[in-house]
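Blackboard transcription, Thursday session:
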Amino acid sequence: MEPAGPAASAGRTRPVRIVDVAALAGVAPGTASKALSGSGQLRAETRERVRRAADQLGFVPDGVGRALSSGRSFTVGLLTTDSIGRFTLPVVLGVEDALGAGDVAVLLCDTRDDPLRERHHLRSLASRRVDGIVVTGRRTDPRTPVSADVPVVYAFQPSRREEDTSVVVDERGGAVAALAHLLALGRTRVAHITGSSRHAAARSRAEAVVDAAASAGRPLVVDPLHGAWSEEWGRRAVDLLVRQVPDVDAVSCGSDQIARGVVDRLRELGRTVPDDVAVTGFDDWDVMALASRPPLTTVGLQMHEVGRTAARLLLEAVDGRPQPGTVVLPTHLVVRGSTVA
Amino acid sequence: MEPAGPAASAGRTRPVRIVDVAALAGVAPGTASKALSGSGQLRAETRERVRRAADQLGFVPDGVGRALSSGRSFTVGLLTTDSIGRFTLPVVLGVEDALGAGDVAVLLCDTRDDPLRERHHLRSLASRRVDGIVVTGRRTDPRTPVSADVPVVYAFQPSRREEDTSVVVDERGGAVAALAHLLALGRTRVAHITGSSRHAAARSRAEAVVDAAASAGRPLVVDPLHGAWSEEWGRRAVDLLVRQVPDVDAVSCGSDQIARGVVDRLRELGRTVPDDVAVTGFDDWDVMALASRPPLTTVGLQMHEVGRTAARLLLEAVDGRPQPGTVVLPTHLVVRGSTVA
DNA sequence: GAACGGCAGGAACACGTTTTCTGAAACGTA
DNA sequence: TACGTTTCAGAAAACGTGTTCCTGCCGTTC
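(Written on the board underneath:)
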């Protein structure tokens, strides 16, 4: 009863199946499948005929049928340890970017730091027969591995199990690079202001700065000041610092937020940045780094690349070439007005 | 040859199928399906026996098989008009939140403002037989509708076609509320500083403020100042403003970034906020609103709720109850130190 | 005692694709 | 001409679930 025309307008038109293509090309469905996938032994003429029929009908293979048949769903899960935020978002986009190119889709699973939600999502992903899972999280403290029947890659937040595949960022290297930059500018009295010591990121960056400063013969003028990841703490820390070390001439900060607070407070105290005091940030968060006066010299983390790399490693693992171990991605120093005029 | 035990350890264990459950319960696969789904006519005892068998084996129905059979994939696509950013992220999370509860998964498709990518993603979603699509975007300018064979709901950025289902935020209402708050504080010389007039958000908020001020008998002291969505513009706009209207006593801003620049610059000029000049922001972006000194009174947009609502409307439409038209969600004013001491 | 109705559960098929197996035709060689 | 080999394409099974149809049994009623 319904019009047989293949190109109905907007309304819910039932999709063309491979049998439709096969019928138009005058071959069996299996043959059409072989023709379109490039497998099997077919005459070039037949192959081309099927291909033309598929084009003409606008055939798009049904992913569900394909998944059922092939056992691969061409879908991966993206599971967050906490909630997607400023840090994990670029990772997520990097994953989506790298996978989308390979016609692999991403199932978004936001955990919100809730183990129950994590279990729920893992079951959901398992039932959907995803080909693999990317696990990410805001913190850099290693997390307990997830248990899944498919390959798993950890992005930014590594797995506690070293034989798992993890992609992390060279935080220590970045912190050392920022410090080296300050020393190269001739600064000799350097302080480090950073976030809570309960965060691995704060601890490892601080340790790296302390070690590098000491081995350069320019030990920090005070122990690292641990507080919060906020502008407010940056401002307060400056007050503490200048009281203790009035002639400080450089501050290495654990984040751009802290650095911005530091810069603001220094200016209010009448110190010129960078002439009197040079300041470095961390993260290269444009909203902070560029709005600061002067804009911040900071350490870029390339989170997008973390996501892309994790996605690539996952695809490798799905294809049977797992690569255990942790990949450490380099950071890069972005020099702006807070260190050089 | 392989161990028949159902609970193999970590290694790639083949998932239990419904036939396994049926065998253990001593019924046919079809019966097991009926027992677990609650359909068909079965004795309560049989139903319970199957249920126990499923629990014992840890059976999770294969989503792929189910999708193929039922025609529903229990998956929806989330398509961004531009790229996921600060504004759209809460929408995305709201969508994921509302759908995850109903065992519906979210396929993430980031468009990056590229029509080619959008086409690619739409094809991918179609091939995966998603049940519906949520479209979102950073800007509030209506977008050209997407063409898909499944229900579509637009979140935050509405569709240009009015009969489509869109969920937006009451920007005008929010802008009016902020202005009313300033007037209620006794301010009489109000200015409005906002972003580029090329953005619908800037235009509609500015119009609303102008209209509300005029009808309250307190017209704005100058025409709205259009610039950029940045702190830098906020600071520059203050310089322009005080030169023109030295006795301005309130500034309504189009965004928290602008408001923060305004507050900073006013303080540098020796004006006290809020005593000399009261300032309101827009968006309630914690990073800006709370780090500002004083913290910003601002308009909260509840983007999370936009996502949740869009998801709910989409599920309704998938279930055959489409609700055409635009839903406008209320904003709420968050009062902080930039207007009241 | 037979006919009928209602209920429990089994068998078969549908969904759309991929893949394997099999068969037929074409071709070459002895 | 007969036989073997190669090339191509079709038929059928497989993937796992949901649903429909159908059969058999039991109880009831005339």
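Lecturer's comment: Chain B touches chain A through 50 residues (CB under 8 Å).
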